[in-house]
Amino acid sequence: MRHDKRPGTVVSVSRDDLHRFSKPAVGSIRLLAGIGVEGDSHAGVTVQHRYAKKRNPLAPNLCQVHFMAAELFDDLVPTGYTVTPGELGENVTTAGIDLMTLPLGTRLHLGAEAVVSITGMRSPCSLINGYQKGLMKQLITTDAVGTVHRRGGIMGVVVTGGVVNPGDGIRVELPAGEHVPLGVV
Length: 185
Prior knowledge:
single chain; 185 residues; mainly beta; 7-stranded mixed beta barrel; 13 strands
């Protein structure tokens, strides 16, 4: 792996012990290796998202930590939507990193200890329209040539645990070799 020089910052951290759409912002979160965010409903070795768990309850949990860029929230304002950290269900709201362009296997070093390996993109689901009507059309679009663009954040698994706080730095460690674009997990 090689280190990227792009700076990043943790803007906010969120967790919820129930399967609700939004997650309340908290003062800090603890990441547990191979599990996810301590006390979060999506923490676990196997898949915890309700729809995916119904399909295959023994599938590995590739969605232990959900990241969302704060820059997206700024982009939504001119379209009439106001979103704040945690409201779209993310655990870590970031600034200064173009999350959606990171390749598969990128490692995000959060704060002093925590490391998360990126597994893919989150595909926004229809529950977003229940939160704010029409918002899904802002988070998943198709361009003139038919390419689908998702802006619902990225997912990862915890490689090294640790405490993550708002204001912590994020260091990007890109994978060696060919960079594989993120698919949907």
